[in-house]
Amino acid sequence: MVEFKLVVSDGPKSYAKALADPQAAGFLGKRLGDTVGGELLGLGGYTLTITGGTDKSGFPLRADLPGARQVRILVSEGLGYHPAHAGTRDRRSFRGNTVSEQTVQINLRVTARGSTPLAELLAPPAK
User: Fold this and answer.
1) 122 in the Ramachandran plot: left (φ > 0), alpha (ψ -120 to 50) or beta?
2) What percent of the chain has pLDDT over 90?
3) SS3 for 30?
C-alpha cells in the first residue's frame, strides 16, 4: 500500500504528516473539495478540506478533471502552468480530481478547529 504525505495548512503555517494506510483513513475515492474529519488523522475536533495534491510522478490534481486518470490537456494559464509570455498555450499532464492509489501527497486546509492547537498535535519530534 502507498504511503500518503499529508500537508495540513492552518492559515500561514503548514504541517506535514505521513499516513501509512490511506484506505483506513478514508481518503481513497475522495475528491478535491470534500471534507474529512480530523479524528481519522489523530486531530480530534478538527475538520479538514482536501484542496489539492500530486501523484507519484509529480503531476498535480486538477479540480476540473473528473476521475483519477492522468490526461494531457491544453492550458493557457492557471494551476500547474504559468506561461512566460501572455497568450502562450501548452499541453501539460494533470491527474483527475479523485484521490487514488496513484496519489502520494494530499493538501488539506483546516475549516474547523479543535480545542488543542495544531502546533502541539503535529509538532515535529524534538532533536
Assistant:
1) alpha
2) 63
3) coil
The β-bridge relationship of strands 70-75 and 90-95 is antiparallel
* Domain contains 27: yes
CA distance 17 to 62: 22
Domain for residue 62, yes or no?
yes
pLDDT beyond 60 at 1:
no
Residue 77: inside a domain: yes
- What is the domain extent for residue 48? 4-114
Sequence-distant (6+) residues with CB within 8 A of 63 are 32, 33, 79, 97
Residue-wise DSSP of 99-115: --TTEEEEEEEEEE--S
Write the DSSP string, 52-119: EEEETTSPBB-TTS-SS-EEEEEESSBTTB--SSTT--EEEEEE-SB--TTEEEEEEEEEE--SS-HH
Let me know if residue 55 belongs to a domain. yes
Domains contained in the chain, number: 1
